[in-house]
Amino acid sequence: MDQTSTIFWFRRDLRLEDNAGLYHALRNESDVVCLFIFDIEILNDLEDEFDKRVTFIYDSLQTLKKQLEEKNTSLLILYGNPVDIFSEINPKAVYTNRDYEPYARRRDESVQKVLALKGCNLHLFKDQVIFDTNEILKDSGDPYTIFTPYSRRWKSKLNKFYAKSYPVEKYFRNFKLIPPLPMPSLEEVGFKRAVTDFPERIIKLKIIQEYDKQRDFPAIRGTSRLSIHLRFGTLSIRKVVQIALKKNEVWLNELIWRDFYHMILWYFPRVENNSFKPAYDKISWRNNLKEFKAWCEGKTGYPIVDAGMRELNETGFMHNRVRMITASFLTKHLLIDWRWGEAYFAKKLLDYDMAANNGGWQWAAGCGCDAAPYFRVFNPELQAEKYDPDHKYVKAWLKEYGTDKYPCPIIEHKFARERALKVYKKALE
């Protein structure tokens, strides 16, 4: 890589269309080379060599590479530590989109230092959220920590400019002409192909229109299933917000929650490992390994909890209502540390996103910035009666449901609720 070429570094934005950083690279530079790095610091933390998300990334890169080669350029795919890789090359400039996770911030600071020694700049752009770190703040200049006022400010500030797509295609001529480059195999980056059906990258308008009425019923296809595409950037957040504004405000609110949790992670990176409300770190968790195993395997004796865990284990997906029920059950009924559940979801979810996963678990445990109060304990049986009244969801995932092979409840709800209230109250005194 010589100093006449500029790098665009793909990360959580695996698409050409409406890509902010790529737009700025092509608009401001010529001879732009596209790069993706299989980051060993991230991959080494993945335990399963058949990790479905790595397969999804790999397939998305194949698509991206093909699209680039149709434009007489290609995609350089490397495997290693990004800091080491940028130490060895000498580009004119590097463009990329901002990542808000603590590791990503440390990595980018290190890359920036390495590039600066060469007289090269790392240009970071907003792409995976609508509003960036300094764009939605209180009048005092402090970040919001409660969703409702954050969402009001978010909606009041939104206009066509912030939701507008970037016309990247106008500058495709500025790609560097490159013959097709080789692509490493999955095995060369330490993984094997997972066999699974990934959600389509299709925005189904009828589902969006009915979202507010159907979103809480797991037996119904009432949610968009687009979260994996937003997580890895195969779909633009601006595109889905444009549709949400026209079709369904409740769905728009879910997208605002996504921005909100990214900003919480940015301003309060300690939440990665600690409760947003420090007092909640005083809770005396039981952390019973046998009960945790039963929860992980979907063998608690509470059908809607077990169905959710079985679906997660088999597909990498869990309905959002069921995520709340299963998380509440682990933290309140079993008094198992929310970090254990968060880590398990992080291993299994196709759409795993640290900001949303962390925010959701802290919400369920009552310890987050804008959480359900600790005395709110979901009753799994009532939740099932309300949201799966015909047991369609439960029967789809629990083949032994209704037989003597299905386990008895691991704990009685009333007892568990009273115990949780006592333990929480003692910690918060």
Automatic annotation (TrEMBL):
Transmembrane segments: none annotated. Pfam families: DNA_photolyase (PF00875), FAD_binding_7 (PF03441). Keywords: Chromophore, FAD, Flavoprotein. Its cofactor is (6R)-5,10-methylene-5,6,7,8-tetrahydrofolate; FAD. Residues 4-130 form the Photolyase/cryptochrome alpha/beta domain. InterPro entries: Crypto/Photolyase_FAD-like_sf, Crypto/Photolyase_N_sf, Cryptochr/Photolyase_FAD-bd, Cryptochrome/DNA_photolyase_1, DNA_photolyase_1_CS_C, DNA_photolyase_N, Rossmann-like_a/b/a_fold. Belongs to the DNA photolyase family. This is DNA photolyase family protein. It comes from Chryseosolibacter indicus. The lineage of its organism: Bacteria, Pseudomonadati, Bacteroidota, Cytophagia, Cytophagales.
